[in-house]
Amino acid sequence: MPVASRREVGQRIATIRRSRRMTQADLARAAFVSLATVKGIERGVRSPSDDTLDSISTALNVDSSRIVVGSSRTDSRVHAALPEISAAIAAYEIPADTNPRPLDELAEDIGYLVQWRLAAQYARIAEHAPHRLTESLVALHHANGAEQLHAARLLAVVARSADAVAYKFGALDLSARLVELMRWAADQTESRIVQATAAYVRTETFLAARAHTQGLRALEQAIDACPSPLDTVSTAARGALHMRAAVIAGRSGDMDAVALHLDEARALGDTVPEAAYDGTQFGPDSVRAHEVSVAVSLGQEHLHRALDIADEWTPPDRLPEERQSGFWIELARAQVWASRPDNAFESLKVARFIAPQHTREHPWAREAAATIRRLKRADADSLTSFTEWIGAV
Question: Which pTM value belongs to this model?
Answer without folding.
Answer: 0.83
